[in-house]
Amino acid sequence: MEPTPEQSPHHAYPDHWEADVVLRDGGTARIRPITTDDAERLVSFYEQVSDESKYYRFFAPYPRLSARDVHRFTHHDYVDRVGLAVTIGGEFIATVRYDRIDGQGRPASAPADEAEVAFLVQDAHQGRGVASALLEHIAAVARERGIRRFAAEVLPANNKMIKVFRDAGFTQQRSFEDGSVHLTLDLEPTAESLAVQRAREQRAEARSVQRLLAPGSVAVIGVGRAPGGVGRSVLRNLLGSGFTGRAYAVNTSFDAGTGTAEGVPAHRSVSEIGEQVDLAVVAVPADRVPAVVADCGESGVQGLVVLSAGYAERGAEGRERQRELVRQARSYGMRIIGPNAFGIINTAPEVRLNASLAPESPKAGRIGLFTQSGAIGIAVLAGLHRRSAGLSAFISAGNRADVSGNDFLQYWYEDPGTDVALLYLESLGNPRKFTRLARRTAAVKPVVVVKGARHSGTNPPGHAVPVSRIPDATVSALMRQAGVIRVDTVTEMVDVGLLLAGQPLPDGSRVAILGNSESLGLLTYDACLAEGLRPRPPRDLTTVASPQDFRNALAEALADRTCDAVIVTAIPWVGEDGEAETGDGEVLAAALREAAATGPAKPVAVVHVEMGGLAQALAAATSTAAPPAHRPSGPGPQAPSAAPGAPGAGGIPAPASDGRAGAPGDPAPSTTRAPGHPAASPGRATAAEAGRLPGHPAASPGRAPVSEAAPSPGRPAPDAGRIPAYPAAERAVRALAEAVKYAQWRRQAATPGKVPEFLDDTIDEHGTAALIGRLLGPDPDPRGRPLTHDEACELLAGYGIAVRPALPAPDPEAAVAAAGQLGYPVALKTTAPHLRHRADLGGVRLDLAGENALRRAYDELTDLLGTPAELRPVVQAMAPRGVDTVVRASIDAAAGAVLSFGLAGAPSELLGDTAHRLVPATDRDAAELIRSIKAAPVLFGWRGSAPADTAALEELLLRVSRLVDDHPEVVSAALEPVVVATHGLTVLGASVRLAPPPARSDLGPRRLPSY
Known about the structure:
eight-stranded mixed sheet, single chain, alpha/beta, flat, disordered N terminus
């Protein structure tokens, strides 16, 4: 909305203050500045507020607003006087206002930094978290305008408003003066205020998803009068799933006398239904959708599933149509799945919702599936059906213009019916938020992701979100850091999901292999080695092994304290009559289930070849009871045993608990049952339950997630105890390897790393900030600027990072003079961009011990590569011999700051052997960063060489991380090469680029994205 000329002309309407927010009950609302055009809305709003609320606002009976009041409350300069309104359907439901004041409480202008604030919320909308959301936004506005404190006068009886201020997490002071409570809030964000904000965000967004997945009534809009068509298909699927709520068919073409369609009431519009409709499935052409949305909004519908196509996937016109769809739906407080969606499914017995184009609902299970592609969704549903696996929920979001994977991570985090979250993503609209939510969710249940469109550099058609330029390898590394299990294909996603949903997490990487085929056992053994596991020699039961032989062997393997997981390989066995047994596998499945149920809690997977119905028999649910609680492996979280090729193997010491290098330890022995007492077993907890350990973040006092509770009565745990079966050894081993790495991450996440305090003594944060301000200047170029060598050295020195001096050598005499100043031996290097850090091109001469050698090297360089003006040679004192490495940090506007490490040289670049971590990095992150590259053994005494000083390297990584975290103006920094010697390291080159920092959407008030 644009201001009228009556408003201050020098303060334009701040449209960036407009925001859509999710309220506590899951509905949406819009927050925007109040303008002079809002006079009638303000009066109408005030008339609907109770006398009690008016009294609380004005401290006296105040039945109506005068013309002067209306003028005052609608005319703002957007600096010293600001008013915000919350609207639904275009009408006000709440307002907030601040007025800048001086020390005596009188109206003032800058530089006064205090303001008086007051709220008013319609009684019908109190308790929805409206005031809390308004406080976040008005505080952000105030900070932007130079206001640092809010003052508020509240009547003692106004407990709701006092609670809003008290629970916000801001530093505050309270006093009682003249019959009212005087509150002062410091508006600087705190760790507590940020935690409060994110907790409210989680509850609100989870609730908004719950409203979509568990409606009490559904209207399918676009049901044709004749059989066939999308709308009628969805209605049939809804009814065929046994939906427990009310269903309605809607089509404007229905005759007035049409009574039913597919046996449910038929109406020409939602407004004609006359009863509450919670969810509307929209299956009409795109040009008719706006009228449908308006009808739903006016009728109080809570959410929409839009199957209609013709939006952003169709180009610029479609993108604008999609934006308008989102704006219109949110204006009524509705959230959208779609457009161009395949639909949603909820298998909970109390709901049984199939509002999708899938003709059959999947079985009930404990896996949640979110996909941005309808075709992929169909494929995954079919794959799960073939393997007799079930889902808790299925969502195919299409263009995901509103509800996204982030929302479902918020929901699944606390959903007691979901143990594993599977996501197929083609774009990440908010990578920062995804990483934060995935890390929190992965701490209590596995998150498995397949990322499509990895190498295209663009978003798929229909996904109108910002494009991140971060390489796919970096995205994968950052997902791993957040505990996300990233796989390459949807088949692998299902393989891993089935294992994690039905089996406990392994305590380590030691694998027992047993079966009736020596060849299949050897294939499994080789696959384990390739995946970094530690397999024991396969146990061959021979082809005459009976199901009882399998049972006994599996029981022995599970009881063996030197193994953490078991893979069973099976081919058709020879019966007593000499014939190959190719039956349905039920006998063997029963034997394996019995051994697994009575043995210690370790994961079991089966590799089968031509075994008929073995996979289906193994997938059969063994219990409808809630899964038992996970048994601790020892007194606390255990460090995983090292695997070949993994951190701690191949001569690379694993990080110790303090993040420094240490020796890896073997896991504690598994707990076993008392002989003859199966009920005494601690149970076979699934992967999600492994986080229910004392000391786990999710089990912190006062904040136990709902997922820790047992499933509700009548809600089966169909995946508990099912043994996953795979038709190839490589698939089973890959799934198990992912479970091993995830279990290791879980154990480490229970005791997160920290930033060492010793850094504070050698860091000048304020001095560096002042230097950055001088280098950028009062009016910085938005594109930024690279620093000169001397400027970069000065900036890095503020964080204790010393760069070895390099003196320019424009001619031989200058080179000799520089060497005399630095001291021999020296290095002569070119710094031209096309030769920089390219020793393979001959632009570097090392160990020049005297003047003659230096002059000879200078002549060789200029004869071979070009003139001194082209080469820009420099002279630098030699550093102690060591391993050449590279440390980099960069900021991506979408994903945030990323710290990277690798060895210097062309081979590492060609092979992409670089590790990445999000900033700020902890001591554990720094230690893992060094150890996670493939060439890491070079730093740890490979082939008898002296180990490098990795402790000094970890400290350097932490300093660079701290620099870019403290100063987001440092948009890129590269230290190359960093020579790591046996004792200490030397930074030989550095480049830094400064720019105005990109906006941090994750630190501002809660808001829904707008693309």
